[in-house]
Protein backbone atom coordinates (compact mmCIF):
# COMPACT_ATOMS: atom_id res chain seq x y z
CA UNK A 1 0.00 0.00 0.00
CA UNK A 2 1.31 3.41 -1.01
CA UNK A 3 1.33 6.34 1.44
CA UNK A 4 2.53 9.94 1.61
CA UNK A 5 3.66 11.98 4.62
CA UNK A 6 3.08 15.73 4.75
CA UNK A 7 4.44 18.24 7.27
CA UNK A 8 7.34 17.99 9.65
CA UNK A 9 6.13 19.34 12.99
CA UNK A 10 5.07 17.01 15.76
CA UNK A 11 1.34 16.49 16.25
CA UNK A 12 0.11 19.13 18.72
CA UNK A 13 -3.61 18.30 18.43
CA UNK A 14 -5.08 17.13 21.72
CA UNK A 15 -8.42 15.56 22.55
CA UNK A 16 -10.61 16.80 25.35
CA UNK A 17 -13.34 14.20 25.48
CA UNK A 18 -14.83 12.69 22.35
CA UNK A 19 -16.10 15.91 20.81
CA UNK A 20 -13.33 18.46 21.37
CA UNK A 21 -9.97 18.98 19.62
CA UNK A 22 -7.49 21.55 20.91
CA UNK A 23 -4.14 22.67 19.50
CA UNK A 24 -1.66 22.51 22.33
CA UNK A 25 0.55 25.62 21.85
CA UNK A 26 1.66 28.58 23.96
CA UNK A 27 -0.73 30.84 22.07
CA UNK A 28 -4.37 30.78 23.04
CA UNK A 29 -6.80 29.66 20.33
CA UNK A 30 -8.89 32.41 18.75
CA UNK A 31 -11.44 30.52 16.63
CA UNK A 32 -13.80 27.61 17.14
CA UNK A 33 -14.93 25.58 14.15
CA UNK A 34 -17.83 23.16 14.51
CA UNK A 35 -17.76 20.14 12.20
CA UNK A 36 -20.78 18.01 12.99
CA UNK A 37 -20.64 17.21 16.70
CA UNK A 38 -16.94 17.96 17.06
CA UNK A 39 -15.46 21.33 18.13
CA UNK A 40 -12.01 22.41 16.93
CA UNK A 41 -10.30 25.13 18.99
CA UNK A 42 -7.79 26.55 16.50
CA UNK A 43 -5.88 29.67 15.42
CA UNK A 44 -7.01 31.89 12.55
CA UNK A 45 -3.67 32.56 10.93
CA UNK A 46 -2.67 29.00 9.88
CA UNK A 47 -6.14 28.43 8.46
CA UNK A 48 -6.28 31.73 6.60
CA UNK A 49 -2.94 31.02 4.95
CA UNK A 50 -4.19 27.82 3.30
CA UNK A 51 -8.01 27.90 3.03
CA UNK A 52 -9.87 30.19 0.67
CA UNK A 53 -13.18 29.22 2.26
CA UNK A 54 -12.05 30.25 5.77
CA UNK A 55 -10.87 33.54 4.31
CA UNK A 56 -14.32 34.22 2.87
CA UNK A 57 -16.12 33.22 6.03
CA UNK A 58 -14.01 35.41 8.28
CA UNK A 59 -14.33 38.32 5.85
CA UNK A 60 -18.13 38.14 5.88
CA UNK A 61 -19.81 40.50 8.38
CA UNK A 62 -22.68 38.09 8.92
CA UNK A 63 -20.53 35.38 10.50
CA UNK A 64 -18.98 35.43 13.93
CA UNK A 65 -15.23 35.95 13.82
CA UNK A 66 -14.65 33.32 16.44
CA UNK A 67 -17.35 30.69 15.92
CA UNK A 68 -17.87 28.98 12.55
CA UNK A 69 -20.09 26.01 11.68
CA UNK A 70 -19.01 23.70 8.85
CA UNK A 71 -21.53 20.87 8.99
CA UNK A 72 -21.22 19.74 5.35
CA UNK A 73 -17.48 19.01 5.13
CA UNK A 74 -16.92 15.91 2.95
CA UNK A 75 -15.54 13.16 5.13
CA UNK A 76 -16.66 14.90 8.32
CA UNK A 77 -14.47 15.74 11.28
CA UNK A 78 -11.79 13.18 10.39
CA UNK A 79 -11.06 14.70 6.98
CA UNK A 80 -11.24 18.25 8.34
CA UNK A 81 -8.70 17.40 11.03
CA UNK A 82 -6.18 16.20 8.39
CA UNK A 83 -6.66 19.46 6.48
CA UNK A 84 -6.26 21.51 9.66
CA UNK A 85 -3.06 19.68 10.60
CA UNK A 86 -1.68 20.40 7.12
CA UNK A 87 -2.32 24.10 7.75
CA UNK A 88 -0.24 23.87 10.92
CA UNK A 89 2.56 21.93 9.19
CA UNK A 90 1.92 18.95 11.44
CA UNK A 91 2.88 15.52 10.15
CA UNK A 92 -0.04 13.74 8.47
CA UNK A 93 -0.06 10.48 6.55
CA UNK A 94 -2.20 9.99 3.45
CA UNK A 95 -3.01 6.51 2.13
CA UNK A 96 -5.61 4.92 -0.18
CA UNK A 97 -8.10 4.71 2.69
CA UNK A 98 -8.20 8.43 3.52
CA UNK A 99 -6.82 10.23 0.49
CA UNK A 100 -10.14 10.51 -1.37
CA UNK A 101 -12.10 11.98 1.53
CA UNK A 102 -9.21 14.34 2.30
CA UNK A 103 -9.09 15.45 -1.32
CA UNK A 104 -12.81 16.25 -1.22
CA UNK A 105 -12.43 18.13 2.09
CA UNK A 106 -9.50 20.12 0.68
CA UNK A 107 -11.68 21.04 -2.31
CA UNK A 108 -14.45 22.11 0.07
CA UNK A 109 -12.02 24.30 2.02
CA UNK A 110 -10.63 25.70 -1.27
CA UNK A 111 -7.04 24.77 -0.52
CA UNK A 112 -5.86 25.61 -4.06
CA UNK A 113 -2.70 26.96 -5.60
CA UNK A 114 -4.35 30.36 -5.94
CA UNK A 115 -4.30 30.64 -2.14
CA UNK A 116 -0.78 29.30 -1.63
CA UNK A 117 1.74 27.38 -3.71
CA UNK A 118 2.08 23.62 -3.12
CA UNK A 119 -1.23 23.62 -1.31
CA UNK A 120 -3.03 20.46 -0.22
CA UNK A 121 -5.13 19.95 -3.37
CA UNK A 122 -2.03 19.98 -5.54
CA UNK A 123 -0.09 17.59 -3.31
CA UNK A 124 -2.96 15.09 -3.17
CA UNK A 125 -3.44 15.17 -6.94
CA UNK A 126 0.24 14.37 -7.42
CA UNK A 127 -0.03 11.49 -4.95
CA UNK A 128 -3.08 10.09 -6.72
CA UNK A 129 -1.56 10.29 -10.19
CA UNK A 130 1.88 9.00 -9.31
CA UNK A 131 0.99 6.33 -6.74
CA UNK A 132 -2.60 5.41 -5.97
CA UNK A 133 -3.96 5.30 -9.52
CA UNK A 134 -0.89 3.35 -10.66
CA UNK A 135 -1.49 0.56 -8.17
CA UNK A 136 -4.07 -2.19 -8.75
CA UNK A 137 -4.92 -2.79 -5.10
CA UNK A 138 -4.75 0.87 -4.07
CA UNK A 139 -7.06 1.90 -6.91
CA UNK A 140 -9.69 -0.58 -5.78
CA UNK A 141 -9.40 0.57 -2.15
CA UNK A 142 -9.71 4.21 -3.20
CA UNK A 143 -12.73 3.44 -5.36
CA UNK A 144 -14.46 1.73 -2.45
CA UNK A 145 -14.08 4.87 -0.32
CA UNK A 146 -15.88 6.96 -2.94
CA UNK A 147 -19.32 5.46 -2.37
CA UNK A 148 -20.11 7.87 0.51
CA UNK A 149 -18.79 10.86 -1.45
CA UNK A 150 -20.29 10.03 -4.81
CA UNK A 151 -21.26 13.50 -6.00
CA UNK A 152 -17.98 15.09 -4.89
CA UNK A 153 -15.89 12.34 -6.50
CA UNK A 154 -17.80 12.51 -9.75
CA UNK A 155 -17.48 16.29 -9.95
CA UNK A 156 -13.74 16.04 -9.33
CA UNK A 157 -13.41 13.24 -11.96
CA UNK A 158 -11.93 10.96 -9.32
CA UNK A 159 -14.31 8.10 -10.12
CA UNK A 160 -13.56 8.19 -13.84
CA UNK A 161 -9.80 8.35 -13.29
CA UNK A 162 -9.84 5.49 -10.81
CA UNK A 163 -12.03 3.22 -12.95
CA UNK A 164 -9.95 3.91 -16.03
CA UNK A 165 -6.89 2.76 -14.13
CA UNK A 166 -8.63 -0.45 -13.02
CA UNK A 167 -10.03 -1.21 -16.49
CA UNK A 168 -6.65 -0.59 -18.11
CA UNK A 169 -4.84 -2.92 -15.74
CA UNK A 170 -7.48 -5.63 -16.16
CA UNK A 171 -6.99 -5.40 -19.93
CA UNK A 172 -3.20 -5.77 -20.05
CA UNK A 173 -1.57 -8.92 -21.34
CA UNK A 174 -1.16 -11.42 -18.50
CA UNK A 175 2.56 -11.62 -19.21
CA UNK A 176 2.89 -8.01 -18.00
CA UNK A 177 1.05 -8.50 -14.69
CA UNK A 178 3.66 -7.93 -12.00
CA UNK A 179 1.54 -6.67 -9.13
CA UNK A 180 -0.30 -8.54 -6.38
CA UNK A 181 -3.91 -9.64 -6.76
CA UNK A 182 -6.44 -11.86 -4.99
CA UNK A 183 -6.93 -15.32 -6.46
CA UNK A 184 -8.39 -18.07 -4.29
CA UNK A 185 -9.19 -20.53 -7.06
CA UNK A 186 -6.83 -23.26 -8.18
CA UNK A 187 -4.48 -22.15 -10.93
CA UNK A 188 -4.06 -24.47 -13.89
CA UNK A 189 -0.36 -23.62 -14.00
CA UNK A 190 0.94 -22.24 -10.66
CA UNK A 191 3.69 -20.12 -12.16
CA UNK A 192 1.48 -18.52 -14.82
CA UNK A 193 -0.87 -15.58 -14.25
CA UNK A 194 -4.43 -16.77 -15.04
CA UNK A 195 -6.51 -14.85 -17.54
CA UNK A 196 -9.14 -14.07 -14.92
CA UNK A 197 -6.62 -12.86 -12.30
CA UNK A 198 -8.57 -9.62 -11.71
CA UNK A 199 -12.06 -11.11 -11.24
CA UNK A 200 -12.12 -11.65 -7.47
CA UNK A 201 -10.80 -8.21 -6.54
CA UNK A 202 -13.68 -6.54 -8.36
CA UNK A 203 -16.28 -8.30 -6.22
CA UNK A 204 -15.60 -5.72 -3.49
CA UNK A 205 -16.75 -2.80 -5.65
CA UNK A 206 -20.23 -1.28 -5.60
CA UNK A 207 -22.57 -2.40 -8.36
CA UNK A 208 -22.69 0.87 -10.31
CA UNK A 209 -18.88 1.12 -10.31
CA UNK A 210 -18.56 -2.54 -11.27
CA UNK A 211 -20.87 -1.99 -14.22
CA UNK A 212 -18.84 1.00 -15.46
CA UNK A 213 -15.56 -0.92 -15.16
CA UNK A 214 -16.92 -3.92 -17.09
CA UNK A 215 -18.26 -1.59 -19.77
CA UNK A 216 -14.83 0.05 -20.00
CA UNK A 217 -13.14 -3.37 -20.28
CA UNK A 218 -15.54 -4.35 -23.06
CA UNK A 219 -14.75 -1.11 -24.92
CA UNK A 220 -11.03 -1.84 -24.83
CA UNK A 221 -11.79 -5.24 -26.45
CA UNK A 222 -8.68 -6.93 -25.10
CA UNK A 223 -10.34 -9.39 -22.71
CA UNK A 224 -12.22 -12.48 -23.91
CA UNK A 225 -15.96 -12.70 -23.41
CA UNK A 226 -15.48 -15.87 -21.33
CA UNK A 227 -13.37 -13.98 -18.78
CA UNK A 228 -15.84 -11.08 -18.67
CA UNK A 229 -18.66 -13.58 -18.17
CA UNK A 230 -16.71 -15.20 -15.35
CA UNK A 231 -16.27 -11.79 -13.73
CA UNK A 232 -20.02 -11.11 -13.85
CA UNK A 233 -20.85 -14.56 -12.48
CA UNK A 234 -18.29 -14.32 -9.67
CA UNK A 235 -19.54 -10.86 -8.70
CA UNK A 236 -23.15 -12.07 -8.63
CA UNK A 237 -22.41 -15.07 -6.41
CA UNK A 238 -20.31 -12.93 -4.06
CA UNK A 239 -23.07 -10.35 -3.69
CA UNK A 240 -25.90 -12.91 -3.49
CA UNK A 241 -24.52 -16.18 -2.06
CA UNK A 242 -28.02 -17.69 -1.92
CA UNK A 243 -28.97 -16.83 -5.47
CA UNK A 244 -30.75 -20.16 -5.97
CA UNK A 245 -32.56 -19.97 -2.61
CA UNK A 246 -35.94 -18.31 -2.95
CA UNK A 247 -36.19 -17.44 0.75
CA UNK A 248 -32.99 -15.39 0.50
CA UNK A 249 -33.82 -13.32 -2.55
CA UNK A 250 -37.58 -12.86 -2.37
CA UNK A 251 -38.58 -9.23 -1.89
CA UNK A 252 -35.01 -7.87 -1.82
CA UNK A 253 -34.85 -4.64 -3.84
CA UNK A 254 -31.04 -4.66 -3.98
CA UNK A 255 -30.98 -8.17 -5.39
CA UNK A 256 -33.62 -7.19 -7.91
CA UNK A 257 -31.44 -4.32 -9.11
CA UNK A 258 -28.40 -6.60 -9.25
CA UNK A 259 -30.21 -9.29 -11.29
CA UNK A 260 -31.45 -6.72 -13.77
CA UNK A 261 -28.03 -5.06 -14.06
CA UNK A 262 -25.94 -8.21 -14.54
CA UNK A 263 -28.43 -9.57 -17.09
CA UNK A 264 -27.66 -6.71 -19.44
CA UNK A 265 -23.99 -6.67 -18.46
CA UNK A 266 -23.33 -10.21 -19.67
CA UNK A 267 -21.40 -10.49 -22.95
CA UNK A 268 -23.64 -11.13 -25.93
CA UNK A 269 -21.67 -14.17 -27.09
CA UNK A 270 -23.01 -17.68 -26.45
CA UNK A 271 -21.18 -19.53 -23.70
CA UNK A 272 -19.95 -16.48 -21.79
CA UNK A 273 -21.57 -18.05 -18.71
CA UNK A 274 -23.08 -21.46 -18.04
CA UNK A 275 -26.71 -22.25 -18.77
CA UNK A 276 -27.15 -23.24 -15.11
CA UNK A 277 -26.13 -19.73 -14.00
CA UNK A 278 -28.52 -18.14 -16.49
CA UNK A 279 -31.37 -20.28 -15.18
CA UNK A 280 -30.56 -19.26 -11.60
CA UNK A 281 -30.75 -15.63 -12.71
CA UNK A 282 -34.07 -16.33 -14.43
CA UNK A 283 -35.45 -18.03 -11.34
CA UNK A 284 -34.44 -15.00 -9.26
CA UNK A 285 -35.90 -12.62 -11.85
CA UNK A 286 -39.23 -14.43 -11.67
CA UNK A 287 -39.29 -14.48 -7.87
CA UNK A 288 -38.39 -10.78 -7.67
CA UNK A 289 -40.84 -9.83 -10.41
CA UNK A 290 -38.18 -8.18 -12.53
CA UNK A 291 -39.15 -6.43 -15.74
CA UNK A 292 -40.44 -8.61 -18.57
CA UNK A 293 -37.60 -7.37 -20.77
CA UNK A 294 -35.08 -8.80 -18.29
CA UNK A 295 -36.79 -12.21 -18.19
CA UNK A 296 -37.16 -12.28 -21.96
CA UNK A 297 -33.46 -11.55 -22.42
CA UNK A 298 -32.49 -14.34 -20.04
CA UNK A 299 -34.87 -16.75 -21.79
CA UNK A 300 -33.29 -15.86 -25.11
CA UNK A 301 -29.79 -16.51 -23.79
CA UNK A 302 -30.85 -19.80 -22.18
CA UNK A 303 -32.45 -20.95 -25.42
CA UNK A 304 -29.12 -20.54 -27.20
CA UNK A 305 -27.43 -23.10 -24.93
CA UNK A 306 -30.34 -25.14 -23.61
CA UNK A 307 -28.49 -28.40 -24.23
CA UNK A 308 -26.34 -27.61 -21.17
CA UNK A 309 -29.28 -27.43 -18.76
CA UNK A 310 -30.50 -30.09 -16.36
CA UNK A 311 -34.08 -30.94 -15.42
CA UNK A 312 -33.62 -29.43 -11.97
CA UNK A 313 -32.44 -26.18 -13.54
CA UNK A 314 -35.70 -25.93 -15.48
CA UNK A 315 -37.93 -26.46 -12.46
CA UNK A 316 -38.64 -22.76 -11.96
CA UNK A 317 -41.31 -22.28 -9.26
CA UNK A 318 -44.32 -20.14 -10.03
CA UNK A 319 -44.95 -16.98 -8.07
CA UNK A 320 -47.78 -16.62 -5.57
CA UNK A 321 -51.25 -16.92 -7.04
CA UNK A 322 -50.37 -19.39 -9.79
CA UNK A 323 -52.09 -22.78 -9.94
CA UNK A 324 -49.22 -24.97 -11.08
CA UNK A 325 -46.10 -25.65 -9.04
CA UNK A 326 -43.67 -24.87 -11.85
CA UNK A 327 -43.64 -22.13 -14.48
CA UNK A 328 -44.35 -24.19 -17.59
CA UNK A 329 -44.93 -21.13 -19.75
CA UNK A 330 -41.38 -19.97 -19.12
CA UNK A 331 -39.98 -23.33 -20.25
CA UNK A 332 -42.23 -23.26 -23.32
CA UNK A 333 -40.72 -19.90 -24.26
CA UNK A 334 -37.18 -21.19 -23.72
CA UNK A 335 -37.70 -24.30 -25.86
CA UNK A 336 -39.35 -22.20 -28.54
CA UNK A 337 -36.34 -19.88 -28.52
CA UNK A 338 -33.99 -22.87 -28.80
CA UNK A 339 -35.86 -24.32 -31.77
CA UNK A 340 -36.15 -20.98 -33.51
CA UNK A 341 -32.42 -20.27 -33.25
CA UNK A 342 -31.34 -23.77 -34.23
CA UNK A 343 -33.80 -24.10 -37.10
CA UNK A 344 -32.76 -20.66 -38.27
CA UNK A 345 -29.19 -21.89 -38.67
CA UNK A 346 -27.51 -19.22 -36.56
CA UNK A 347 -23.98 -20.37 -37.30
CA UNK A 348 -22.25 -17.67 -35.32
CA UNK A 349 -23.75 -19.21 -32.21
CA UNK A 350 -22.18 -22.61 -32.80
CA UNK A 351 -19.38 -23.83 -30.61
CA UNK A 352 -16.43 -25.74 -32.09
CA UNK A 353 -17.33 -29.40 -32.44
CA UNK A 354 -21.01 -28.83 -31.63
CA UNK A 355 -23.44 -30.83 -33.77
CA UNK A 356 -26.96 -29.42 -34.01
CA UNK A 357 -28.50 -32.89 -34.43
CA UNK A 358 -26.83 -34.08 -31.21
CA UNK A 359 -27.87 -30.86 -29.52
CA UNK A 360 -31.52 -31.35 -30.44
CA UNK A 361 -31.39 -34.94 -29.21
CA UNK A 362 -30.00 -33.77 -25.89
CA UNK A 363 -32.73 -31.15 -25.56
CA UNK A 364 -35.38 -33.76 -26.44
CA UNK A 365 -34.22 -35.91 -23.51
CA UNK A 366 -34.18 -32.82 -21.30
CA UNK A 367 -37.76 -31.91 -22.22
CA UNK A 368 -38.97 -35.48 -21.65
CA UNK A 369 -37.38 -35.45 -18.21
CA UNK A 370 -39.00 -32.10 -17.46
CA UNK A 371 -42.40 -33.42 -18.60
CA UNK A 372 -42.06 -36.36 -16.24
CA UNK A 373 -41.54 -33.94 -13.35
CA UNK A 374 -44.37 -31.53 -14.13
CA UNK A 375 -46.66 -34.52 -14.76
CA UNK A 376 -46.55 -35.15 -11.00
CA UNK A 377 -48.40 -31.87 -10.46
CA UNK A 378 -52.12 -32.57 -10.65
CA UNK A 379 -52.73 -28.99 -11.73
CA UNK A 380 -50.59 -29.30 -14.86
CA UNK A 381 -52.95 -28.69 -17.80
CA UNK A 382 -52.96 -31.39 -20.44
CA UNK A 383 -52.87 -28.73 -23.16
CA UNK A 384 -49.49 -27.39 -21.95
CA UNK A 385 -48.12 -30.90 -21.47
CA UNK A 386 -49.07 -31.82 -25.04
CA UNK A 387 -47.84 -28.57 -26.50
CA UNK A 388 -44.42 -28.88 -24.91
CA UNK A 389 -44.08 -32.54 -25.89
CA UNK A 390 -45.05 -31.81 -29.51
CA UNK A 391 -42.59 -28.94 -29.82
CA UNK A 392 -39.70 -31.37 -30.13
CA UNK A 393 -39.18 -32.47 -33.76
CA UNK A 394 -39.89 -36.15 -34.41
CA UNK A 395 -36.38 -36.83 -35.68
CA UNK A 396 -34.94 -35.56 -32.39
CA UNK A 397 -36.59 -38.43 -30.47
CA UNK A 398 -35.22 -41.69 -31.88
CA UNK A 399 -36.17 -43.36 -28.57
CA UNK A 400 -39.51 -42.71 -26.84
CA UNK A 401 -38.65 -44.20 -23.46
CA UNK A 402 -38.38 -40.80 -21.76
CA UNK A 403 -41.63 -39.63 -23.31
CA UNK A 404 -43.33 -42.89 -22.29
CA UNK A 405 -42.24 -42.34 -18.69
CA UNK A 406 -43.68 -38.80 -18.78
CA UNK A 407 -46.99 -39.99 -20.30
CA UNK A 408 -47.27 -42.81 -17.79
CA UNK A 409 -46.60 -40.41 -14.92
CA UNK A 410 -49.30 -38.04 -16.19
CA UNK A 411 -51.81 -40.91 -16.44
CA UNK A 412 -50.95 -42.02 -12.93
CA UNK A 413 -51.35 -38.56 -11.37
CA UNK A 414 -54.44 -37.66 -13.43
CA UNK A 415 -56.64 -40.77 -13.22
CA UNK A 416 -59.83 -38.85 -13.96
CA UNK A 417 -58.99 -37.53 -17.41
CA UNK A 418 -61.47 -38.43 -20.13
CA UNK A 419 -60.99 -41.12 -22.76
CA UNK A 420 -60.53 -38.45 -25.38
CA UNK A 421 -57.79 -36.76 -23.34
CA UNK A 422 -56.10 -40.10 -22.72
CA UNK A 423 -56.24 -40.79 -26.44
CA UNK A 424 -54.56 -37.45 -27.21
CA UNK A 425 -51.92 -38.05 -24.57
CA UNK A 426 -51.03 -41.55 -25.75
CA UNK A 427 -50.97 -40.45 -29.38
CA UNK A 428 -47.62 -38.84 -28.55
CA UNK A 429 -46.02 -42.28 -28.32
CA UNK A 430 -44.63 -44.31 -31.18
CA UNK A 431 -44.39 -47.93 -29.99
CA UNK A 432 -41.79 -48.61 -32.67
CA UNK A 433 -39.44 -46.29 -30.78
CA UNK A 434 -39.81 -47.97 -27.39
CA UNK A 435 -37.01 -50.10 -26.01
CA UNK A 436 -37.70 -53.74 -25.04
CA UNK A 437 -37.83 -52.73 -21.35
CA UNK A 438 -40.35 -49.99 -22.07
CA UNK A 439 -42.44 -52.38 -24.17
CA UNK A 440 -42.35 -54.92 -21.36
CA UNK A 441 -43.70 -52.35 -18.96
CA UNK A 442 -46.27 -51.04 -21.42
CA UNK A 443 -47.95 -54.41 -22.07
CA UNK A 444 -48.63 -54.76 -18.35
CA UNK A 445 -49.62 -51.12 -17.83
CA UNK A 446 -53.37 -50.96 -17.26
CA UNK A 447 -53.30 -47.16 -17.41
CA UNK A 448 -52.67 -47.31 -21.16
CA UNK A 449 -55.47 -47.63 -23.72
CA UNK A 450 -55.87 -51.17 -25.04
CA UNK A 451 -55.19 -50.11 -28.60
CA UNK A 452 -51.73 -48.83 -27.65
CA UNK A 453 -50.98 -52.08 -25.81
CA UNK A 454 -51.93 -54.02 -28.93
CA UNK A 455 -49.59 -51.90 -31.01
CA UNK A 456 -46.77 -52.55 -28.56
CA UNK A 457 -47.41 -56.30 -28.65
CA UNK A 458 -47.49 -56.34 -32.43
CA UNK A 459 -44.28 -54.37 -32.57
CA UNK A 460 -42.61 -56.82 -30.21
CA UNK A 461 -43.88 -59.71 -32.35
CA UNK A 462 -42.44 -58.08 -35.48
CA UNK A 463 -39.15 -57.44 -33.75
CA UNK A 464 -38.96 -61.05 -32.58
CA UNK A 465 -39.85 -62.40 -36.03
CA UNK A 466 -37.14 -60.26 -37.62
CA UNK A 467 -34.64 -61.67 -35.17
CA UNK A 468 -35.83 -65.20 -35.85
CA UNK A 469 -34.99 -64.90 -39.54
CA UNK A 470 -31.29 -64.65 -38.65
CA UNK A 471 -30.99 -68.07 -37.05
CA UNK A 472 -33.12 -70.61 -35.25
CA UNK A 473 -30.89 -70.41 -32.20
CA UNK A 474 -31.30 -66.66 -32.19
CA UNK A 475 -35.06 -67.11 -32.24
CA UNK A 476 -35.01 -69.23 -29.12
CA UNK A 477 -32.77 -66.73 -27.35
CA UNK A 478 -35.00 -63.82 -28.35
CA UNK A 479 -38.15 -65.59 -27.18
CA UNK A 480 -36.51 -66.33 -23.86
CA UNK A 481 -35.48 -62.70 -23.37
CA UNK A 482 -38.94 -61.42 -24.27
CA UNK A 483 -40.53 -63.77 -21.77
CA UNK A 484 -38.09 -62.64 -19.12
CA UNK A 485 -38.76 -58.96 -19.86
CA UNK A 486 -42.44 -59.57 -19.43
CA UNK A 487 -41.70 -60.81 -15.95
CA UNK A 488 -42.54 -64.49 -16.48
CA UNK A 489 -39.58 -65.97 -14.59
CA UNK A 490 -41.01 -66.22 -11.16
CA UNK A 491 -41.06 -68.75 -8.32
CA UNK A 492 -43.71 -71.46 -8.34
CA UNK A 493 -44.93 -70.13 -5.01
CA UNK A 494 -47.79 -67.60 -5.08
CA UNK A 495 -46.38 -64.09 -4.39
CA UNK A 496 -47.65 -60.52 -4.32
CA UNK A 497 -45.43 -57.43 -4.56
CA UNK A 498 -46.67 -53.87 -4.04
CA UNK A 499 -44.70 -50.99 -5.50
CA UNK A 500 -45.08 -48.00 -7.81
CA UNK A 501 -45.50 -49.27 -11.36
CA UNK A 502 -44.72 -46.00 -13.14
CA UNK A 503 -41.90 -46.79 -15.52
CA UNK A 504 -38.45 -45.34 -14.83
CA UNK A 505 -36.52 -47.10 -17.56
CA UNK A 506 -36.04 -50.35 -15.66
CA UNK A 507 -37.84 -53.68 -15.84
CA UNK A 508 -41.59 -53.58 -15.12
CA UNK A 509 -42.75 -53.77 -11.54
CA UNK A 510 -45.78 -55.57 -10.17
CA UNK A 511 -48.73 -53.89 -8.54
CA UNK A 512 -50.57 -55.43 -5.63
CA UNK A 513 -53.89 -56.93 -6.68
CA UNK A 514 -53.22 -56.40 -10.40
CA UNK A 515 -50.46 -58.74 -11.53
CA UNK A 516 -49.89 -61.96 -9.63
CA UNK A 517 -47.83 -65.02 -10.48
CA UNK A 518 -49.45 -68.43 -10.00
CA UNK A 519 -48.82 -72.00 -11.07
CA UNK A 520 -51.12 -74.09 -13.16
CA UNK A 521 -52.00 -77.68 -12.52
CA UNK A 522 -49.04 -79.12 -14.39
CA UNK A 523 -46.45 -76.87 -12.83
CA UNK A 524 -46.31 -74.30 -15.66
CA UNK A 525 -45.75 -70.67 -14.69
CA UNK A 526 -48.68 -68.34 -15.42
CA UNK A 527 -48.84 -64.52 -15.59
CA UNK A 528 -51.78 -62.17 -15.49
CA UNK A 529 -51.36 -60.50 -18.83
CA UNK A 530 -53.24 -57.78 -20.62
CA UNK A 531 -56.97 -57.56 -19.91
CA UNK A 532 -56.73 -60.20 -17.19
CA UNK A 533 -56.01 -62.98 -19.73
CA UNK A 534 -53.72 -65.54 -18.10
CA UNK A 535 -50.91 -66.69 -20.33
CA UNK A 536 -48.12 -69.14 -19.78
CA UNK A 537 -44.78 -67.66 -18.87
CA UNK A 538 -43.08 -69.19 -21.90
CA UNK A 539 -45.45 -67.63 -24.41
CA UNK A 540 -44.04 -65.41 -27.11
CA UNK A 541 -45.50 -61.98 -28.00
CA UNK A 542 -47.14 -63.65 -31.01
CA UNK A 543 -48.94 -66.14 -28.77
CA UNK A 544 -49.96 -63.40 -26.33
CA UNK A 545 -51.27 -61.30 -29.20
CA UNK A 546 -53.19 -64.32 -30.50
CA UNK A 547 -54.88 -64.79 -27.12
CA UNK A 548 -55.92 -61.12 -27.01
CA UNK A 549 -56.94 -60.84 -30.65
CA UNK A 550 -58.01 -64.21 -32.09
CA UNK A 551 -58.81 -63.85 -35.77
CA UNK A 552 -60.47 -66.66 -37.68
CA UNK A 553 -59.18 -67.83 -40.98
CA UNK A 554 -55.60 -66.82 -40.44
CA UNK A 555 -52.90 -69.40 -39.96
CA UNK A 556 -50.89 -67.19 -37.69
CA UNK A 557 -53.85 -66.11 -35.60
CA UNK A 558 -52.96 -62.45 -36.33
CA UNK A 559 -54.33 -60.10 -38.94
CA UNK A 560 -52.54 -56.82 -38.24
CA UNK A 561 -50.57 -54.32 -40.29
CA UNK A 562 -47.45 -52.59 -39.03
CA UNK A 563 -49.13 -49.21 -38.78
CA UNK A 564 -50.49 -47.62 -35.64
CA UNK A 565 -54.14 -47.02 -34.85
CA UNK A 566 -56.28 -44.22 -36.15
CA UNK A 567 -56.19 -42.39 -32.85
CA UNK A 568 -53.51 -40.05 -34.02
CA UNK A 569 -50.61 -42.10 -32.75
CA UNK A 570 -47.58 -42.57 -34.97
CA UNK A 571 -48.28 -44.61 -38.05
CA UNK A 572 -52.07 -44.46 -37.71
CA UNK A 573 -54.49 -45.41 -40.42
CA UNK A 574 -54.63 -49.23 -40.58
CA UNK A 575 -58.16 -50.47 -41.27
CA UNK A 576 -57.34 -54.01 -40.21
CA UNK A 577 -56.06 -52.72 -36.93
CA UNK A 578 -59.22 -50.77 -36.26
CA UNK A 579 -61.27 -53.93 -36.78
CA UNK A 580 -58.89 -55.82 -34.59
CA UNK A 581 -59.33 -53.35 -31.73
CA UNK A 582 -63.09 -53.84 -31.86
CA UNK A 583 -62.66 -57.56 -31.27
CA UNK A 584 -60.59 -56.95 -28.15
CA UNK A 585 -62.22 -58.03 -24.84
CA UNK A 586 -62.75 -55.53 -22.01
CA UNK A 587 -59.53 -54.70 -20.12
CA UNK A 588 -61.06 -54.83 -16.65
CA UNK A 589 -61.52 -58.60 -16.70
CA UNK A 590 -59.57 -60.13 -13.84
Automatic annotation (TrEMBL):
Residues 196-463 form the NPH3 domain. Keywords: Ubl conjugation pathway. InterPro entries: BTB/POZ_dom, NPH3/RPT2-like, NPH3_dom, SKP1/BTB/POZ_sf. Residues 465-497, 557-579 have a biased composition (Low complexity). Residues 465-528, 553-590 are annotated as: Disordered. Residues 29-96 form the BTB domain. PROSITE patterns: BTB, NPH3. Pathway: Protein modification; protein ubiquitination. Belongs to the NPH3 family. This is Phototropic-responsive NPH3 family protein. It comes from Rhynchospora pubera.
